[in-house]
Amino acid sequence: MTVFPKDFLWGGATAANQCEGAYNKGGKGLSVQDVLPGGIFGPITDGPTKDNLKLDAIDFYHRYEEDIKLLAEMGFKVFRMSIAWTRIFPTGEEELPNEEGLAFYDRVFDTCRKYKIEPLVTLSHYESPLYLSKAYDGWRSRKLIDLFAKYAKTVFRRYKDSVKYWVTFNEINVTSHIPLLGGGVLTPRDQLTKQDMYQAAHHQLVASGLVTKIGKDINPEFKIGCMVASAPRYPMTCHPDDVTYAMEEQQELTLFVHVHAKGEYPYYTKRLFEQEDITLEITEEDKQHLKHTVDFISFSYYNSKTVAKDPSKYELAQGNLYRGLRNPYLEYSEWNYPIDPQGLRYILNFYYERYELPMFVSENGMGAIDHPIEENGTLTVDDNYRIDFHKSHLIEVGKAIQDGVDVFGYTSWGCIDLISAASAQMEKRYGFVYVDRDKDGNGTMNRYPKKSFYWYKDVISTNGQSLFDTKD
């Protein structure tokens, strides 16, 4: 029996700030990532520093042809990537775009087309222009709505015949929790109120609706989606206090999907905002922009989150941005992330039951310390742990499809090793391709397929059937 649809989009995902490098090449301006050498929790430096590995990253800027060829060798149908806003408008306020930046992405998309790989492009992936952060405190200002719309209109027009699938903001809900990462807000988090953070997120939601309309006006064939960081909330116990607390936490997450899918804030926003003493400034024009809903829902999934009304009695666990309590029924990664394949099936059903929009798994993976070995005169990595992780999660995607969920694609996170967004580390690797660069930035930057490279190639070539092969 065929589980995955015949046109299923198999592939992988990257972000410009974590793979491109060349921070000062081709007319590019500085983004907030260029002054965050330690990752999402700072410190913020005065300018680029040698210890910021993202400045060179894995040099996709110069090696994109080699990298896309490797993706094609695996059989990728789709490549999720982002455009660096500061390659197109270096400060964000220029009247005219930077032609060198536009031409770079012309070449990237031409290479994708050469190998029959469909680009899925994120407009904003944690790389707000640093100038706008300094001038306006990032997305706390309404000014950024029109500036983002100008940028989006520029790339929509330029690539209207090269790109079909678009995502407006990466993990848009993160702005309400980590405003520097999600919204380019330089004011320290401990000096911000919930009002400040949700107002910044609201400005992004308005901008998302506005550019969705702009994109559809430019090319009605565009498929434009939202993207959120997802971690289903499990109650630690069946005590009603824990169950209700998990429900409220899940609603806070789902709010961002609801606005994109329904064009308005959900009913429970009133209670949520009253609890947090939030009164958003929402104009009539805002409401009109929000009504431009998305074609699909995409999300990242790394782990579930277990919560309790009183967490003091339990041990803490880590996780990708959303960190909860240690679930005794799960295994854990080297970074103490819970490994929960069934949570992926759960969240796919959760969203589809509510919104009945096509679903796309845009990030899924496990960070691990890889130990390269030499085989037949070349480097490789015997990464069965990565294979086991992806296999177990993809089987759950297959089960969700059997449940009736319309899932049309899956992109593994960091398909080629890149710099971690959370910690700015190189040793926290996700890829099917090993990049020869160490934690201090030393190495040849050469690429080497890992064991998982050939495993994923087989998964794609069989359209997922090999996942269910019981033979060793």
TrEMBL record:
Q: Name one GO molecular function term.
A: beta-glucosidase activity
Q: Which organism is it from?
A: Alkalihalobacillus trypoxylicola
Any matching Pfam family: Glyco_hydro_1
Q: Which family does it belong to?
A: Belongs to the glycosyl hydrolase 1 family.
Keywords for this protein: Glycosidase, Hydrolase
Which protein are we looking at? 6-phospho-beta-glucosidase
InterPro entries tied to this protein: GH, GH_1_N_CS, Glyco_hydro_1, Glyco_hydro_1_AS
The answer, when asked if Cell cycle is one of the entry's keywords, is: no
